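User: I want to check something. If I give you two sequences, will you return the structure for each one separately, not as a complex?

Assistant: Yes, each is folded on its own. Here is the first sequence with its structure:
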Amino acid sequence: MDSLSKGVIADVLHRLHQEAEIADGQLMQTFANEAKSRDEIISKAIAAESRDLNEVYRGLADNFLSVSPRFGRFLYMCVRVCKAKRIVEFGSSMGISAIYMAAGLRDIGGGRLIGTDLEPGKIERARANVAAAGLADLVEFRHGDARETLSSGLGAEIDMVMLDGAFTLYLPILRLLEPHLKRGALIVGENALEEASGYIDYVRDPENGYLSLSLPFEPGRGNEFTIKTR
């Protein structure tokens, strides 16, 4: 059984990726027009988050900033491979990545995904999108700063984590979740930037209980794949 190939989930994802392309087109074009180096763009983004995290993401409230269809399929496959029952997502945005992961949960018999986002409008739209895909019973969205929304009420051990939020919070969120991670848990980071938060150095140091490497697709996005080894 594969919910991504056909049916209501596949149809909803196709629609949402089209909406995302339209919603984010102007933002992507702005980046292209400015013709700045990657290092300069990243440096400015990190500095902006450090000044006022809420202001940065309030300004992106209408942008999907979502995973690509290819990355979404990778997430779905990760869920199935690790036979996940409990997933935590940092940075749910409009719910596209949550749909991919919840579809994986559905196709292996069920489970729970807890997602969180700073913007209330995005949480509302994520809930609606997940409901449209018929997956609402598998997903809980929490509104607010993930350092607070993920500090309690996570339930059983976590099998998988998806990090796709504020660049500067990847390591703090991972450290917050660490006590709940089962051995062998998968951690997938999109935009896990070496310049931000110390996350990459941390997960690539085996002394911290992880094995980690960059993903060999969508270069430049800072995609990182990590497993908890102890």
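And separately, the second sequence with its own structure:
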Amino acid sequence: MRLSSTSIHAGQPIAAEFAAGDANGFAANRNPQLAWSEVPEGTRSFALLCVDPDVPTVPDTVGRHDCSVPRDQPRADFVHWAMADIPASVHAIAAGSCSEGFTVKGKTAPAGPAGARQGLNDFTGWFAGNPDMAGQYLGYDGPYPPFNDERVHRYFFRVFALDVAQLDLPTPFTAADVHRAMHGHVLAEATLHGTYTLNPALA
């Protein structure tokens, strides 16, 4: 299976229109265009995940003007998108069709292919302690790395072809729930990644 995009070129910087944040604050936050081909026989649905594996693990170093987030600081995953039960007939998602703009406290009913279900992304946990921002962040919310991070962040879009039409998932669900539910049901996987940074020294 192959994953391609007119919005993202493999290994290259992602345009700010597909990010949740830019140098001025919240950005256009449009989902990128994605298309998948060479789908295996027996595919009954798809799942889609977008994960940044370069998120700092020491929150006190994030967003500070008096220090930077060291490049060698241990990193963790941050989920930007989790979608399941994408019908087998769907082989592409148009740019901006699932997200247009950043919604404070999260999108309550994000758009997506008919029949698909959108899960929580990790902005849910990130903003949990902020009463002005806390909420359930469903669907796609794009890159917004710390401006003081010495590392360029990578964003991996992964599409999975599954042999089941629906996954057994809670409401709401997370990327971890998707991973558990699709275990033993993956026929093929395709990945595409782009990069993003708000550090002027790295841009």
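Because they were folded independently, the notes below concern the second chain alone. Strands lie at 2-4, 21-22, 25-26, 34-37, 45-56, 75-87, 92-93, 117-118, 153-162, 186-196. The chain has a mean pLDDT of 97.
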